[in-house]
Design a protein that fits this description.
19 strands, 13 helices, disordered N terminus, about 35% helix, alpha/beta, seven-stranded mixed beta sheet
């Protein structure tokens, strides 16, 4: 017993005094440990432990790990009582290594790594989307100012978009014009091949084609290139576009339908071809063979993926259609709905390598009004896409004759009674009752 009390190592383990060489050199066991439950306090001796002057102190910077009695020796080994040595090894009592109270490092869980990756991906997509939005919005050609138009139709319910497909050759080389069967030259004046009024509202989407040969009343206008004034006259609808551009076309449509145009969108041949090619083509199923020499369309009955050149030929051909211009209008609506459906797929919208070429291709020849931004264009595409999902209708304006004789040649005459009923339903954003095909 005396040898145990007099042993330098063990005496210093339990009774070392501050300032002794052992304490200064770190060879003495620390007094600064928690006493485990049941450990005798000063003045209450227990068998096997000295009592004189021993009073364990609490130091929060040290933590007790495993071991039967929970004592930490700085360099000591004690297997019987499970003491932890800072550099030592535990014996039968079973202490564990510790590193100055710090918890051992652990690898992030699989769930945590997945969350981090998801956050990073979302941030990248967000930055890309915002960058694309800002870049594309600055490229929009807002050359039409609807706020300057006079004699406007009253504002109705819902939103009306006028979609115009022009025969502008801007952006096409001589070889392009030959390959696309467009004829003309890059500086030739713009004419319109198609006009679609798209209405969105509480009852879904209505795509209504306005045949370019429609016999309508053209309001008074001034020829932009000559400044000459012209009074009200009767003419074909596409003549309004040729004579006074987008402004006169919008005024003419509002005059004859009573529907106020909220947004104007026009795209030329080059932009149309570019968009179709950028999204990898548009799937289209045909119920008959099409062979039109003038447009260059040569397609067999069945399903195809139309590239830009073939798609342009398809929407322009009309000579094989039994209803002529009305049949072409139906093809144009069908194609635009399919185009919107393809462009809105996640594989297109979330892929920067596709988004940038698609937007760039469309903006090169896209003309919009001052109030149109990318949000408006997105709503336009969503409206067209709704038609393919069953939440909308495709139709032509009600027609009573497709060969109506006029001073300007054969024209398309509207069925005024049915047309007025349809226009009133759209103006008041009510369900459309007309079942004419589009």
């Amino acid at each position: 017993m005396t040898d145990w009390l007099d042993g330098a190592s063990e005496r210093n383990r339990y009774r070392g005094e501050v300032g002794t060489p052992q304490v200064r050199t770190g060879q003495v066991g620390r007094q600064a440990e928690y006493a485990p439950a049941g450990y005798p306090s000063a003045g209450h001796p227990s068998a096997g432990y000295p009592s004189a002057g021993y009073a364990p102190q609490v130091h929060p910077a040290r933590t007790v790990r495993d071991g039967n009695n929970g004592h930490n020796g700085r360099n000591g080994n004690n297997g019987n009582n499970g003491h932890d040595g800072r550099n030592g090894h535990t014996g039968g009592g079973g202490g564990s290594h510790t590193s100055r109270g710090r918890a051992p490092a652990t690898r992030p869980s699989r769930r945590r790594r997945f969350i981090r990756a998801a956050i990073l991906l979302t941030a990248v997509l967000l930055i890309t989307s915002v960058g694309t939005y800002v870049w594309a919005d600055t490229k929009l050609n807002r050359e039409v100012d609807l706020s300057e138009l006079t004699d406007r139709a009253p504002q109705g319910k819902g939103t009306n978009y006028l979609i115009v497909g022009s025969d502008s050759r801007v952006g096409l080389s001589e070889q392009d014009r030959k390959d696309l069967h467009t004829g003309g030259s890059a500086d030739a004046g713009r004419r319109t091949d198609s006009m679609i009024l798209l209405h969105t509202g509480a009852h879904g989407t209505t795509m209504m084609s306005l045949p370019r040969d429609s016999w309508v009343t053209v309001p008074p206008y001034i020829r932009p290139e000559t400044g000459k004034h012209y009074g009200t006259s009767k003419n074909k609808l596409n003549a309004a576009f040729s004579l006074g551009g987008p402004d006169l076309l919008v005024r003419t449509i509002e005059r004859n339908t009573g529907l106020r145009i909220d947004h104007y969108t026009e795209i030329g041949f080059s932009g149309f071809v570019g968009i179709v090619n950028a999204i990898g083509g548009v799937p289209m199923c045909l119920d008959k063979d099409i062979n039109d020499e003038k447009s260059g369309a040569n397609l067999k009955k069945g399903c195809h993926t139309l590239d830009g050149r073939t798609a342009l030929a398809f929407v322009r051909q009309r000579h094989q259609e039994a209803q002529g211009d009305l049949g072409r209008s139906q093809n144009q609506q069908k194609f635009l709905a399919a185009l919107a459906d393809k462009a809105a797929t996640p594989g297109i919208l979330l892929d920067p390598s596709t988004v940038y070429p698609t937007v760039s291709a469309g903006l090169d020849t896209l003309i919009v009004d001052e109030g149109t931004d990318l949000r408006s264009l997105t709503s336009l595409f969503e409206g067209m896409k709704n038609v393919t999902s069953g939440n909308g209708k495709r139709l032509n304006v009600p027609v009573s004759s497709i060969g109506f004789p006029t001073s300007k040649g054969s024209a398309v005459k509207w069925d005024l009674a049915q047309a007025e009923k349809l226009f009133t339903e759209l103006r008041n954003d009510r369900p459309v009752s007309f079942e004419g095909k589009g």
